[in-house]
Design a protein that fits this description.
Strand content: under 5%
CATH architecture: Up-down Bundle
Shape: globular
Low-confidence stretches: none
Radius of gyration: 16 Å
Order of helices and strands: HHHHHHH
Length: about 150
């Protein structure tokens, strides 16, 4: 049994060809996953632990509009500095990191976490394009059509 999300992602990514064989590229993929997890871990514990819907909403809203902007801006700049020709982190090849950024973006903007705007990625074109490219990928489309 594998119990940690990053370990599961690496294992499944390797099996599915979504995790780079090149050590440096693999480290870049891990870096983006960790940066996205850091962002989520800064907001979700507060959103869950605060008592009262109004207070939870304010905590998340304040985070998204202040600290969260700083983190997403850094993430967008870092992805831009890594990105090669093509819509995904490593160019034309979909990776686990692309799925991570897109799926967490979709989750956060789904309305499940009150206070996160639906257009969270809009100020960050690289994140918006990456998310769109992931959900337009034929394999991802096929997966969502099957569930």
């Amino acid at each position: 049994m594998i119990a940690q999300s990053h370990a599961i992602a690496r294992f499944a990514g390797n099996r599915a060809g979504l995790y780079p064989k090149d050590d440096f590229e693999a480290a870049l993929v891990d870096e983006v996953i960790e940066a996205m997890e850091h962002f989520v871990n800064l907001v979700l514990p507060s959103a869950i632990s605060e008592k009262g819907a109004g207070k939870r909403y304010r905590v998340v809203h304040d985070f998204v509009n202040h600290t969260g902007k700083v983190h997403l801006n850094r993430l967008a700049k870092r992805i831009s500095s890594i990105q090669r020709e093509g819509p995904f982190l490593l160019g034309r090849r979909l990776t686990v990191a692309d799925l991570w950024v897109a799926s967490l973006g979709r989750f956060l903007t789904s309305g499940y976490v009150s206070g996160v705007p639906k257009d969270l990625y809009e100020p960050y074109p690289v994140l918006s394009r990456l998310m769109k490219a992931v959900f337009d990928h034929p394999s991802v489309k096929a997966y969502y059509a099957s569930i």
